[in-house]
Structures are given as C-alpha cells and as structure tokens.
Amino acid sequence: MRRKRRTTLFWIIFVVILAAAGFGVWLLLTNLSLKRSPEFASQVLHYVFVNKDKDTAHFIRMDISKRMVYILSLKQHSFDPLNNRAMDLSNPLDVFSFVERMLDISTTQRFYASMSDKQLKAFMSSFLRNGETDFEVFLKNLANKKSNIFETIFLGKQLSYLRPESNFTKAALAKFVYELQRNALRFYTLTTTTDKPVRITVDGRQFERIYLDLQSIQTIKQDIRR
Hints:
The protein has helices spanning 2-35, 38-41, 92-103, 117-125, 135-144, 155-160, 170-180, 214-225, and strands spanning 44-51, 56-63, 68-75, 78-80, 85-86, 110-115, 184-189, 198-202, 205-211. The chain is an alpha/beta fold. Strand 1 and strand 2 (56-63) form a beta hairpin.
C-alpha cells in the first residue's frame, strides 16, 4: 500500500514538473518571438489612442535611438494653420497623417486604437488596478511599473479591450509597454489661439476649427529633432 502511494505521489510530482517545464518553454519561446518581431526591431514607432467619448487623442512617438517617448494630446477639430489642415478623430489614420505632416516626422510602424471611455478605462485597469482614469497619469504609472516575464500571458486579454477599432498586434502592445518602461517620457499640449472651436462656412458647408499656435508647433518640432 505504501509503495502504491509513493508511486502515485511520484507520478503527480512528475506531471507537475513536466507541466511547469512546458509552460516555461512556451513562455520563453513566446517572448523570443515577440523580441524578434518587426515591431521590436523598429527604432521609431507611432501610436495613437483615441477617446471617442471625449473627442480627444494622444499621439505617441517612441524614438529608441534617443531613449525618448513623446506624448502629444490633441482635441477634435484641431487645425494646423501652416498646412491649412484640420484633424478628424473619426479616422485614426488621419491623426497620424495630421501630426506627422505638422511636425515633419515619419515612421513605418503605426498602431492605433479608437475606443469608448469605458473601453479605455478597462484597458488601463488591465495593467494597473488602481482605478486611474487619466490616460497621461496611467502612462506615467505604467512607465514606473516593474516589468516581468509573465506579463506576456495577459497580452491577449489586454489587446481585446482595444478592439474592434484597432490594428494593434501583440508585438506592438508588448513593444509599447517595454519601451515605455525603459525611456524618458515627455508630454506636450499644443497651445491654441482660440479657447473654443470657431465655426466657419466654406462652399456652403460648416466646419469647426480649433486653431493651433504656430510658435507652439515649432517649439515641439524643434524639441523632437534634438
């Protein structure tokens, strides 16, 4: 009877060790796959997070060579007077085009997520369960969080909060968090010449514009080029 119990215990321990080893190998291979992805290989990446309920967006440029993360907050109807162009938050790709042309920057890696306020809060809570509702404070807190290899397990769940209006991949999200925790963060808010949107009529159509200050644009452009 004792020998039978010892045999049973042996097999239980063996199965547990085998399962743990299998999990460890899977985790290691998953992390290696992420680190070898085009997203991780890129030296410059652009991200856009749109809050559809608040009509706001955050454009984020990660420049690995400079060890910098540039974060620019924007509002719907922002208008670049230099390029005579307005920004449309309903199309996240337009946010990339608007900011990149305004600041004369570019990249081959662009990832966006357009979410409701509820989605954004759920996304933030999946990383930090502190009830934070301010996106910029969330970025600061996430940047200060200690990373560990097990975070890979939760990427799929965290990615689900960004969908369906998103082109994020697991590698893009992993890279976002990885570089956020390794580099310095710099936040910008563009100065405007008007407090509220100005209504104008062009060819019988009405538009709202929040005019951005040219000097403010130039200051940010020069800072990014340093």
